[in-house]
Amino acid sequence: MSISVVLITKDEAHNIVACLAAVAWCDRMIVVDSGSRDGTAQLARELGAEVFETEDWPGFGPQKNLAIGKADSDWILSIDADERVTPALRDEIIAAMAAGQADAFEMPRLSSFCGRFIRHGGWYPDHVTRLFRRGRARFSDDLVHERLISDGPVGRLTTPLLHHTYEDYSEVLAKIEHYSTLGARQGFERGKRASPASAVLHGAWAFIRTYLLRRGFLDGAQGLGVALMTGQASYYKYIKLWLLWQQADAQPASRSGRGDRPGPSGST
Question: Taking the model in full, what pTM does it have?
């Protein structure tokens, strides 16, 4: 029974070596790289991965579907460059494939924030579906926060997938900017509206929910950092969404061609 690991990358030279080394036991390693400038593609090739380079960026979901479309193994494991498959998780994956009791499997994901693995604030167990039979699942077409959709039953593994993200606060700020922009654009394209007041309320609620209701305070200073980041990201997403509609509503309907719901031409 064969398995391919697939991942999408862009400027992941700082992650790709450790990531691929942890899945070298897979029959094939497939990387779809979207224009890296830091040598990611070359490093991946040196580690034995098959690398397919693209210049366009259709969004996380479509790009991951492109990657799984290049695999021909019985099973596919989809991971991100900042995730690590431990030996214990490897053994559980192999056992799950051999048992074949489901078409896909989800696993808990344990994420780090500025040097500490976070177990509260809604961050853990954070089950993600990543292992599936070829042809039995695909990713949603979302620009961000894509999810794997299985055609059959989904089982559950118990060993966590390690997620090495947010190594320092400069990375936190960069990801807040990036993901809030993508989230605002996705909401805009779906016709969702926002206002400055709703942006403030969403941001405040996200902080309270993460830090107090989901007990983020139990993770110490990093737990406070996670809550602040969550609140900031929510606020920026909705204020950017409001700004997109401000720009779109100021354009004549004849230019948008979409009536009351302009398309992504109004995004930033």
Answer: 0.85
